[in-house]
User: Fold these one by one.
Assistant:
Number 1:
Amino acid sequence: MALEVGSGLTIGLILGTVIVVAAMLIWVERRLLSFWQERLGPNRVGPFGLLQVVADMIKIFTKEDWVPPFADRVSFIIAPAIIMTVILLSFAVIPFAPNIGIIESNIGVLFILAMASLGAYSVMLGGLSSDNKYALLGSLRAAAQMVSYEVFMGISLLGVVALSGSFNLRTIVEAQEGMWFVVPQFVGFVIFLIAGVAESHRLPFDIPEAEQEICAGYHTEYSGMKFGMFFVGEYLGLVLVSSLITVLFFGGWMGPGFLPPVVWFAVKSGVFIAFFILLRAAIPRPRYDQLMTYGWLFLLPLSLINLLVTGAVILSN
Amino acid sequence: MAKIVVDGNEFEVNPKNNLLQECLSLGLDLPYFCWHPCMGSVGACRQCAVKQYRDENDEKGTIVMACMTPASDGARISIADEQAHDMRERVIESLMISHPHDCPVCEEGGECHLQDMTLMSGHNYRRYDKKKVTHHNQYLGPFINHEMNRCITCYRCVRFYDDYAGGNDLSAQASHHHTYFGRHEEGTLENEFSGNLVEVCPTGVFTDKVFSQAYTRKWDLQTAPSVCTGCSTGCNITPGERYGSLRRIVNRYNSEVNGYFICDRGRFGWEYVNGEERIKTPVQVVGDESKGMSDEEIDELFNDLAKGVVIGIGSPRSSNESNYALRKLVGEANFYPGIANNEHAINQLILELHKDKAFHTPSVREIERADAVIIIGEDITNTAPRIALAVRQSVRNKASELAELNNIPVWQDAAVRELAQQERGPLFILSNAASRLDDVAQQTLIGTCAEQAQFAFAVAEALEGGTPAGLTEQQEKVLLEVVEALRHAKRPLVVSGSSNGSIEMVQAASNIARALSGDQPSHMALVFPEVNTMGLELLVGPEQKLSTALERCSSGEVSGVIVLENDLYRRAPTAAVDNALLQADTVVVLDQMHSATTSKATHVFPVTAFSEQESTYVNYESRAQLSFQVHQTVTDAKPGWKWLTNGDSDINSIIKDCSDEAEGFGSLDGLVPRLSQFVVGLKIPRQSHRYSGRTAMIANRNVHEPKQPEDNESVMAFSMEGMPAMKDASILGSTWAPSWNSNQSISKFQEEVNGELKQGHTGTLLLTEKTETGIPFQPIQVEGGGDSGQLTLSLAFQIFGSEELSARSPSIQKRMTDAYVALAPVDAARLEISHGDAVAINGGPVAVACIREKISEGSCVVHCGAQINPHDLAGAVSLTKTSESLPGKGLSGLIVSDLCEESY
Amino acid sequence: MYSLIKDTLLSQVVTLWGVFKKLFVKADTVEYPDQQPYMFPRWRGRIILSRDPDGEERCVACNLCAVACPVDCIALQKGEMEDGRWYPEFFRINFSRCIMCGFCEEACPTNAIQLTPDFEMAEYVRQDMVWEKEDLLISGCGKYHDYNFYRVAGKQISGKDKGEALNEAKPVNVRSLMP
């Protein structure tokens, strides 16, 4: 079987790689965080602590899979599955390399936005079904945050779409042959970066979880592998956002020929993953109201202006 | 009232007192050492320096000693003044120059007045680099430890021991900085109030030897207000417990009863509570074997007993509740007092006299105020020691009178003593032998009980205006003195009691008191030998005699007998008791300790000791007092009433029942404090706020700490939680106030110095209703001349040994004597008995012969102790020398002033 | 506008850069138990009871440690030797309650109770964390080498009569009238 778009081997490889990378991120994040905090981090299990992930997996699989008696059972169980599913589905449209990808879609960008919207349901359902005040607060925050930031995320992408003239991600990558879109669409890139952090509720925008205020937010009542799915879902989201930034603004797989395209893609994505971890290490969490004000009163106008200016430039050309 | 200004604040004070006392009454913190609320001022320590100003314009002022300065109207003083403060600091620095560096190994540490005052005055560093003066210590007997190096020469010890308590074997010796407080040679401190030195000494020179053996700091003791069960005075005490065992007893202030002092029997007679001899579990005796009893078996036993007629024998050392519960169980007709017949008759007579309008029974404080006292036949030093101490103070009222005449403040102790010299108020003692109060008595008449009664009747007759006949020349001379003194006294007092078993003496005493009463009732104190005799007598009628009970048992008409906390072999002739206990099918004995009676029992139940139960006792003046539970027992013991009521009742309901149903106990229920009385219903903690070791005390048994034991019945808690007593002195276990860790903190709880406790409770008098005046009793005639060879017998009591339970305490035992028979030298010579010989009484029980000068010819005085049953002896006995060997102690513990010289 | 950017955006960037630089700083972590950390002598770890330079127990059972203990985890009972020397009949520390605050050491007037740099005190059974005197008493002086309470205190013990403690004069002769 050849490595080509849509082949079974490719699908299997992508699925496996993405999940393994997401799981490995648990270790990567802990070690990177500790370096930035002048510590060593997990270095006991296996070489460099690499097997920490295995240990964590064993732990999380063998923990009691507890469904609180007061929870709404059905939605409590499907909630973590949703987030895993929608994010994995999003990877379907990502072009990893000229010949690596799952589907060619003309509406790739829209598909990803749609999937991101569905992800909000996971968090909302999880929080609501837990019948716990912290979980409820967390899910309320998550709903508001994800709905709000989706708006700017979408608008910030439109510049890229307008420049490439396509919703197809592969076309967008190919359109960056001459220049990465980060240059003409720098503002769009910044807004997308921020919205991406907010969408995957990573620190500093982990307001729906905010341990210090509301325990663990929407997943307060979760344990065992159900919690694990939320956990891995978060890392998958991190990988997805990094991949999207690579694809949309940094020329995807493109790079000098001494490395294969897929490696270029991985390196670029890896840099952004590391950057997201650096954000966690460095920047404190804003207040909920600050987050919303910042989004609606600053990012929304900025993204609209960005779109208008882009449109004007294209028209004038 | 006078107005004084202290540090700019105006106060109203009593001008008759000194500034120090008034400052303390006002709640101000002013350091002092030598001043004692009960003993006045001598100005020895220079610690209470304050600055006094002439008027508001005087800014310079002069330093004066507050304890030596009257609180006269318009006085302006400053405690906070820098110079005064500096002086106090320097004074304490010099007092501390030779103080040894041994607070950690000092029993006073943590409740030391010297520590408190050092902190209060601000001294903290010994700058003097020369050598410390040191002293050798003395052995001072089984009660008191001596550590002379700690002395700060405040002279409080000798002022208490010699001047207040009448001791003569402690003195200030040597001079200047070598001053030494001790005995002329090593030996036991003889005075029966020596234990108070522990509390009087502001530092650790005199400490409690018994307490030291299992020493615990004050803050670690679990305490509760309790009442002494040593005699019928009903002194208030604070027992302290730690790790499940009782550790010590200290005085608890009660303005009406004991004030600041208790006797050594009360202070040291508690050790039996921890004793190995305690009965620990309920036991059934079958044949020669004894086996434990299950709860079902106990229920069954009481159910079986309830089917037939059961005799109940109450106890004068048992609480009201237990006696009442027994009476309720067996019925009034079957309830008998565990008191000898003759004593019972006297007790009932005393009850009658209590109700008589002509008499008032004075409290201990009132006894101290008497200005002429006659004691008839009762050796109060040995039967009610605290009253003897009060009588000793009463003779000093003469000195106070003189002082007032000469315009000397009464609190100027040294000046008043100097002025009064040997002038004392009249005290007359009729006794069977020399007594410890003889040194302050104006006249002491020695005679048999009948002779004493006859003389007392004569006094009464003379007071009524008659001319009594049949007196010897010497008696007539004394009679004149007595009548003269009593007639002119404003507050005369008659003291007698029931311990000697002579009803005539009590009758004669009441005749004297009746003759003295005019519009006002006259004061008469009639004391009992045991703590709750009064409470028991209130529950029984005069016709309920112990002998009847024993006869009914012997006749076999009853199915069983329940003996409550009583050794019947101290109450009735041995043969009668033997027979009764043999004939009864079931003999149930409830007691703390094994005794001759328990050995004859079929069932023995363990009863809690005084510190392990909440209970009420009635003292000689019918004052009912509540004694709280201090700690939980480590055995299966329960209060007597709990066994007898099948465990259904709690203490509050049994007191309520007793109060409602038993005649005379109407106000008993009012003694029990209710939680609603206290701030927000908080309980009163038994443990201090510094109680330590809670999470380690029993961690050796189980590291998981159990919940603190709960006390569902009383207002006190077995923990540190609740409302500290300092907010509400009504339940004052241990006294403590900020910066006052020692017992001197009591002034913070008094309305004024020597006054009542704030919100305090002094007990409730049960017999307050008075009936019409009765009529005087007919005098008795003494039959002339006994038959040859026989000696008239009367009983001697010993503070250490006569009380049944305290006599089981090891330290008390070291002060006890064996049973002895005291006789006059003439009789001794006639019978060829010399001092220390073994003597058989009526050919039976053996006692040590003790030859004393002040015993009238033809009579003998016998101290029975636990060895001889006094009821086996008739009124006249014959003595024979025997060769039987004596038990070890001999007469070593005997302290009397009239031992014949040659017999030493 | 500039200050707004400086306060919001720029400060975040500076922070990010500052934290990023830590990547090249050596970690502070001491890899216990492979690497034993240096424990300072005044570290407040396992509690011991020491002996004085003569080899006698220093503890005089004064109870001050127990009362100073904020978690009440020390319990003891005073006993007395024949010669008058005080000692603890039992001395118990419940280490499952101890918070290693060191107040007991502060309170101790004889330097008997001391905290040591040993902190490896974990047990599988909680009951094993209750230590009695036999477990606590060491054979040396601990941190304080010279102090012997009884040489300073006036209390008489065997081998030290009255007047033989530090800075004490010979006992006075009470019978003497000389100054």
Number 2:
Amino acid sequence: MMRLAVRTLRFRKGGFIATFVAVVFGTAIVMACGGLMETGIRSNVEPSRLAGAPIVVTGKQSHLRPGAEDATPLPERVGVPASLVAKIRSVEGVSAAIGDLTFPAIAPDVAEGHNWSSARLAPYRLTSGHAPADGQVVTGPGHRPGDRVTFLINGEPAHLVVSGVAAGPAGHAFFSDRDAAQLAGRPGRFADIGVLVASGTDIDAVKDRLQALDANITVSTGVDRGTAEHPGTEAQRTALIAIAGSFGGIATMTMMFVVASTLALSAQHREREFALLRGIGTTPGQVRRMILGESLLVSIPAVLLGCVPGIFLGRFLFDQLGSHGVASPVVEFSQGPIPFAAGAGAAVLAAIGAALIAARKSAKIRPLEALMEASLQRKWFSWVRLLFGLLFLGGGLALLIVTATVMSGPLAGATAGPSVLCWAIGVALLGPFWTKAVLLVLRWPVQALTGVNGRLAILNVSARSVAMSAAAMPVMLAVGISTANLYMQTTQVHAASEAFTRDLRADAVLVSPAGLSLKLLDQVRSVPGVASASAFVRSTGVIDEPRNAPFDEEGAPLLGVNAQGHDGTAPVRLTGGSLTGLTGSTVALPDYVASKIGRRIGSEITMTLGDGTAVKLRVVATFAAERGYETIILPAELVAAHTTDGLTKQILVRSDPGTDVRPALTKLAAAHPGVQVADRDALVASNIEDLQTQAWINYMLVGMLIAYTAVSVVNTLVSTTLRRRREFALQRLTGSTRTQVLRMLTTESTLIALTGILLGTLVALACLLPYAATVSTTALPTGPLWIYLVIITTATLLTFTSTLLPATTTLRHSPTQPTHTD
Amino acid sequence: MRRKQEIVSRTEHSVVLHDVRRVYGRGSNAVTALDGISIAFARGTFTAIMGPSGSGKSTFLHCAAGLDRPTSGSVTIDDQPLAELNERRLTELRRERIGFVFQSFNLLPALTVWQNVCLPQELDGRRPQRAAVRAVLDRVGLGDRHKNRPGELSGGQQQRVAIARALVARPAVIFADEPTGALDTQTAADVLELLREPVRSQGQTVVMVTHDPVAASYADQVVFLADGVLAGSLTAPTAEQVADRMTHLGARSKLSMAVAR
């Protein structure tokens, strides 16, 4: 049968192009996702500044909440106690252990400052000058010994003299050990410890001995050392794995669906051929093997070809994710053989599965049934189909109910996303039924508007409602999936920014990436017209005690603000207590969280902050918060002290009513390098930008899915139209002009597009309404209307061009000219 | 009795139909296409089946050839009752013992003439006998066109390829469904000669459904069908005789319809 498959393929290349393209796309997308996932799992960061130390000891960047199963990744640098250095030195095989201090120090070409002794870990080598004494610094080339350089450290300018120039990885400056310890601001702790061993030592053995010292440290060798330099990669790694996983899954499912539909279509269009084969003695098994053989012959080269864009697509996606801050740009993209195997395997399996589905019916029919059925309407109904259709619709309904009742806030996307797929597949399986229902509705207006051609078109599509449904279903899928996914994004972004701005009472904000000092905060407070001002710091933490706090293993968002009265800037509506006492070890909790864990004002909770420090906190206030957007409020100093850079980067300012404090603030900022003043809108915008970043990934991924379903739309319509050549010729022989045939097709396309768009919109609404009701306050999804307009315009254009273009080419020939290929 | 019939059929008959009924649809929509037909086709004969439209001749051919299963009654080909075979075995039997020539769409457009003729043997897992294929193609006058695809041939040529494909496996019986329906008179005559020739030379059995009296006149005997039952036969017919009989059949059919009303 393989030989027959080869011959058929060689002859019917056209019919398999869509399958080929779909498999190429699918392979590339699945492979790219596999690459992203592998990158996430490996999280290879090339060590640079610590490359000279074969072993690097860091704190454990995760925290296991008591009673929890999964550890929460800690976003801030945990660090190691200085006392560990001596213990490490005494371990057998260690020749030296050097504590490394890291702190932000902003100057041209410099981002981080370190202690000079850690320069050995790269290693840096002095090319001129000498090691730094107090008040001195060693920089990279670009400065000369004796130059004066101003650094911004903790929001304050610091003037230092260059004592020497060292060659090594760029972006780092080295201070005297005493200066560094003071500037790093975390007494008794190092960011990490670099361990040197004598050459020829068994590094793995040393690593095991070091790990045995303390359970709260991570000992890294080889490429893992890179993460020690960039502690934030852990949280991004989880995000990357999640994105790659969910999108890879959806892409595989869509590929299966598209490949199955293209193969089924080509099998359906060749029913006469199968009938003849069966008639002259081909057994059902042989027909099945032939279809399977064809699909393998198409998909295997397609898979091989798909590997090429797969490599680049993965890297491209990773670069994009990196530049949008979703993935860490320091992580190396790695795509080993596993993603290749996964992409190729998924594509081949999808093709085989699709071929088996397509072959089932073609192989089972008796030759005579096939001969008759080929010219008549294909029977679409089967109990299996009804069963699966109802199962998928039931699944969609169940997910809808779960979305509306059980899920809260941003989590609703977890059930709303799959629900649209369930709805869409359910509707597609029972397509002819839905198509007929829609046609009943559309029938009268179309007939009234378009006269004879319209009537002919209506007759056509009604008589061929199964074929019509086959054409309208891909349109429905594309419209439904894209509308639902895109508006889920916009609704989510809108709801989140609503939740943020509703309580935001700042009139202006001071921003500096190099940090804002406490001194500046005092100066801001003394500006005339300023009612109150507060630092604004974000991090992530975990409530350890009580254990039933309603946060998942990703932890709870923390917000650090200064103690303040009723005229404060904190974006909350207090329901109990006050923020005037928010200093030292205190906390303000959302009502929902407080009631869930049974804590009131005055009682205590235990939290682990972003850098793994456990603190006991007294509850001083409770406030109202949107479900799903709960934040825990802590004193700003407490949060800032437990972040990687220890900086306050924003100060929120509230002015007296009727006064504009911005000119005065701008003047103040001018005296402080790096500080900028923004208004409330800028604050909102920067918040939205964060949300947009996440949304952006989804836009990109959804975009690829849409392109994918478009393949299916075009394929279905083009091949269906080409197949009707005879019918068109007959119409022209019986007196229709070319224009009339085209006009009839236009009406048909309109009906197909309308049906697809109508059903797609219904499917999208079935997912969006409960989703919007859950994440926001209204059931109506929010988002710009133009997205929907673009979707339906594209769907309509695709439908029209892929019907009318091939029809025009066909009609160019004389109607009497025989068509041999049928 | 039954035993005796089997012995008779083994020696003389390629195809035996016994009380074959075929009903389409159910309940009030039921249409009886064949209403108890018994007939046997002897080896080495060329039979034409004739009848007005709707007389059940196509259904007859499909049932006799194992393409369709009768509602009741039995069909036996080369002593093998078809009813006891499953779909796969039935298909294999068709491949080995039956050749087909349809009115149109006879050939796979993707394959060349040569490949089309070899196809049944390849499906059977056999190596095509090149000499036999060449001989058959020469016999139908297409020895020089074996590399062409069906799309490049005229209707008559395509039909001749189909006959070559039916002949090359040397089946027990060849069924032809309106083989000349789409051809002009001269081409039709060529095709009919090709069908008749192996009957004479190799003792092949041919059963052909047609509505063309001229085509029927090439057969050894003509069997008439009307309203799903046998309506007589003619041996060594001429076109005039057949046409005459057909006219009567058509009239009777109309009459019976009028009476039914």
Number 3:
Amino acid sequence: MQRIGDAPAVRRLLVGAAVLLAGLFLLLPLVAIFAQAFSQGIGVFWSNISDRYTLAAIGLTLLIATLTIPICLAFGVALAWLVTRFEFPGRRLLQTLIDIPFAVSPVVAGLIYLLLYGRNGWIGGWLDAHDIQLMFAWPGILMVTVFVTSPFVARELIPLMQAQGSREEEAAVTLGAPGWTIFRRVTLPNIRWALLYGVVLTNARAVGEFGAVSVVSGAIRGQTMTLPLHLEQLYQDYNAVGAFASAALLALIALFTLAAKAGLEWRTARQEVTP
Amino acid sequence: MSALALPLPRRRVLPGFGLSLGISLTFVSLVLLLPMTGLVGQLKGLSLAEYWAIISDGRVVASYTVTIGAAALAALANAAFGLLLAWVLVRYDFPGKRLLDALMDLPFALPTAVAGITLATLYAGNGWVGGLLEPLGLKVAYTWVGIALAMAFTSIPFVVRTVQPVLEDLPPEVDEAAMTLGASDATGFRRVILPYLWPALVTGTGLAFVRSLGEFGAIIFIAGNAPFETEITALMIFVKLQEYDYAGASAIASVVLAVSLALLLAINVWQGHFIKRLHGGRG
């Protein structure tokens, strides 16, 4: 059967153009990160990674990601269950509201948190009087990271759970299974790969967030610098190799994210073929 | 029992309504909505004249022009590039196709600051690409072209990932019908395929544009950040904050926030309109 654009010449031209452009525009930067990081040899790379401040930044970044994931997971699952299993007034509005973080510029996200919880804000003032500091400290970084990553899990789950429908869970109810068992034994096996990918996306954004975090961090070396802020500092100090060493670590997480997506898509496709 | 009386309105059979509603509403109120009150509170301290003076200041207005101009260029370039990539990924088989497909998500997976320093290094005068372009008189890094480039990099997946599934769903008979009626490739694409892809293409390009308006991390390294020339609006907010001018930062942020929310709403309405048409009234 003949289809539009099937002539060999057209095909070769379009594939060639796409591969060339994607290579220049997307692959070359990826190669450049590692080339720069190792441009002075593996020894220099290693000494940059094992630097005291880099290690502190890695530690803080891991802490933020580790705390962000369970919070976003609980919210994402609850919200997806709510909007796909029940009809109630305001359901559409709720689904629109969870997209707010996608529409808000990261810098603006950081700013609104700073205004509320900073010393001049109405909550911040009260916190200050009680000697609790959230902004310019790691709790503030955690708060804005939760804000920017909150839609990911829900966004992955909602379309899937909508498509699967609730018939299996309803059958479990008629068989007398308690709620938690239904979720664990019926729902979870159906959504596990989407759930996992939601976590992978949340993690990728949590370790890499820059704009929102840089507003609330206060940039204290060794204390409130996440890995992206740390590499910015190194880059501004003309330590390009050091900056790219940290960048390479973050790029590895990005590559892991891409691999996870490819792997999970393959599993989902297989699940659909053999239900 | 009442479950046997069929015409009754559907009741909540599944458990967990109260719990999931509680968690969702608490989270949405505390994390997403409450912080907005901080912005409102700060803005209330400004008179209308003060507010207008801040958002119409020459340097700030120059930043709107730079941001919108570069975002528009990036979105248009991505519309063409994204359409090409989606087409190639859906229609053809070739070695390395899965790799190319995976590569499309790189800009979403890669932290923006990493993208920022990498693009700045590549396109600087002594960089791999910049070193080739500058002898030709093309300066990318530290100009607004560099800003558009960084915006295009971070937002390309929006176009590809919006167009791709729609193109996959296009039945082969559509192509065949056009070809049997004697349409050339170009005519068939323009008259048959493009109208079908149009809603997805506009949505994807719109999302890319909105993302570009708010992008910060990927841009500031390559932008040069010269006042009136290469400052983006997100940076203006950041600069005001560093001067502890919270009112100024809030005023500019309110403009950015209003524009992006309005655009997102417009995209949703436009998309809903087309989905209704495609699925015969079902949302």
